[in-house]
Each structure stands twice: as C-alpha cells, then as structure tokens.
Design a protein that fits this description.
single chain
C-alpha cells in the first residue's frame, strides 16, 4: 500500500470508528431503557464483571499492539545501522581490487547508495518514485556483483579480494532483503478486527450502563469513544 495514503486512511478509519462507537453507545442505551421499561428493579445484576473483562481485554490488546509496534520500530532502526555498516565494510574492501578496477566499482557503490537513500526519502511522498529507485538500486546490486566477481577472477586480483570483498558484498545485498521483510512485517488482520470489535462492544456496554440517566451524557460517551479511537488508531498506525 502506498505510504502516503496512510495518514488519510488513519483519519478516515478513526472518524468511522468514532461514529460507530457513538452509534453503539446509543444502541446500548436504548437496550438499557427497554430493559428498565420491562423490569423496574433496574439493570441486570453482575454486569460489572462482564464489563471489566471486556475493558481489560481491550486494554491488553492495545498494549500488546503498541508493544509490538515499538519492537518492530526498534528492529527497523537497527537494520538501518546494519546496512550502513555493511555498505561501509564492502566499500572499504574495494581497496583489495586492482587499482585500475577500483574507480568503476566505487562509482557503482556511490550510485547504489544514492538510489537507496533517495528511495527511502521519497517513501512518504511519492511511492511510485520510491519504488522505481528501489528497482534501480536492485539493478545496481546486480551490476556491482557482476563487476566485482569478474574483477576478482582476473590474474591481477589478489586472493584477499575474493576472500574478503565478496562476502562483504553478499552481506550488503542480504541486508536489503532483511529490511524489506521487516518493513512488510505487520500484525495479522484479525488483531485489528478484534480491536475494533472490542471497542464497539465496550461502547455498547457504556451506553447500557448509562441508560438509567434521564438525559444522554454525551460528554462521557464522546470522551470514551475519542479515547479508545485515538488509542486503537495510533496503535494500528504504529504497527503499519
């Protein structure tokens, strides 16, 4: 999914969830009013235990979602440093190649780094351009690999070039796949479905509990809906 569409989708999803929670609270209030009309003894006894279980599960789910998002964020941040180190190591070991082959390889390295950096800079603004730059970086990877292997096989190349440069170049290429997998690592859809479902169920219970009041307490309902909407959307957004 294009990265630039995330903020719009987050706002739209938050607004939709907020309205759905208000509707669920109103439905719960009407159910409670109907119950009071049939039974003047009041609402069902012991409902507090069920409400506590629902809200505890909802809070736990939001906490786990935030925790997982923070863990994935830290992992991705460390991978940036790992890739920078891998590129730096491979670039330094270009010194092992014959002097006449080094300028071409270093030029490919510079173009490769520029393509990678530009791709991630464009990721939040122009997804198509970022994808094109990543494709260009992958093509430069192949060019680098072919050039280094061909140079390492020449009679002028020292054995250290093959022993040290080739593994470093392989690590540099491998880390891009690791970063791609980490970027696409998201919580399963069932987590978000459960998060929305529990939010609506909680709003329903809040409306039911407030039904004995003669007037609608919109302040409490709106505050509850806003709090859980912002928490749910923030945790979902952080996990993206």
């Amino acid at each position: 999914m294009p990265t630039e569409s995330f903020p719009f989708l987050a706002v739209a999803a938050g607004a939709a969830l907020f309205l759905l929670m208000l509707a669920a609270a109103e439905a719960g209030r009407r159910v409670g009013i109907a119950k009071l009309a049939r039974d003047h003894d009041g609402l069902a006894k012991g409902a507090a235990s069920a409400e506590a279980a629902v809200f505890a599960l909802l809070g736990l789910l939001i906490a786990f979602t935030f925790s997982g998002a923070a863990s994935r964020f830290e992992s991705r941040r460390h991978l940036i440093g790992d890739e920078a180190n891998a590129i730096g190591t491979a670039y330094l070991r270009v010194d092992l190649l014959p002097a006449n082959a080094q300028p071409e390889v270093r030029a490919l390295f510079r173009r490769y780094v520029d393509a990678r950096v530009t791709a991630f800079q464009l990721a939040n603004d122009d997804y198509a351009a970022a994808k094109a730059r990543l494709a260009a970086a992958n093509a430069l990877q192949a060019d680098l690999w072919r050039t280094v292997i061909a140079t390492a096989r020449t009679p002028e190349a020292s054995p250290q070039a093959t022993m040290l440069l080739v593994p470093a170049l392989n690590d540099m290429i491998d880390i891009t796949t690791t970063r791609q997998v980490a970027t696409e690592n998201h919580p399963p859809a069932v987590v978000f479905i459960l998060l929305v479902g529990l939010s609506l169920l909680g709003a329903l219970l809040v409306g039911y509990a407030l039904s004995p009041n003669k007037e609608r307490t919109w302040l409490h309902v709106a505050t509850f809906a806003a709090m859980f909407t912002s928490s749910s959307i923030s945790s979902s957004r952080a996990s993206a």
